[in-house]
Amino acid sequence: MSFGSDIKCRVAREAATLLYFGAEKEYKQAKQKAAQTFGNHFLPSNLEVALELDKIAEEHEGSQRKKRLVQMRREALDVMEHLATFYPVLIGSAWRGTIKQGSDIDIAVYADEPLEVLELLKASGVGVLKSAWSSVNKCGETLSSFHIHAQTQDRHGLEIVVRRCEEKGKKRRCETFGDEIKGLSINELQKILKINPTQRFLPE
Length: 204
Hints:
The chain has 6 helices and 5 strands; from the N terminus they run αααβαβαβββα. The chain has 2 domains: about 5-45; about 65-195, Beta Polymerase, domain 2. It is an alpha+beta fold and about 200 residues long.
């Protein structure tokens, strides 16, 4: 391993440590702070940091991590079945299998009337905490989505992202892992829970 590669690995590990223990919340800031710690300019990719973060979570959480992943996926399926008419897809760390302490269950749905999703969630007994519109600018295009923050019965965080129906099927690139965000539909998640409930979905 070259000197530059060795330093990048150390920076990636340090950045992941900062993220895991909550000293930093964003990858960019974590990488910059880690690089400063080692007094260099070698910045690892988000993927390199994410893989180190996954290792740290495994080291600290052990077998309980897999049990929690299965529990979170089952909770996700329950919520998704209530929201079946809105084409729900499990995304985020519960999809990938890279959860850590404090991870949320992230689900994307598609509806032109977000309040319909909100009301259906409340009617199904999900504890909604707050909801709000969010906008991001990507490649000169402003994308808006409605975010619903809630909590499952087992007290896991739950975030539902409501996107417009016309965005269904649109390919999205993961800024952390660099691959396409495919996620799991209801049928796919049901199959995973039967065959391989802790299956991971990472770039090859």
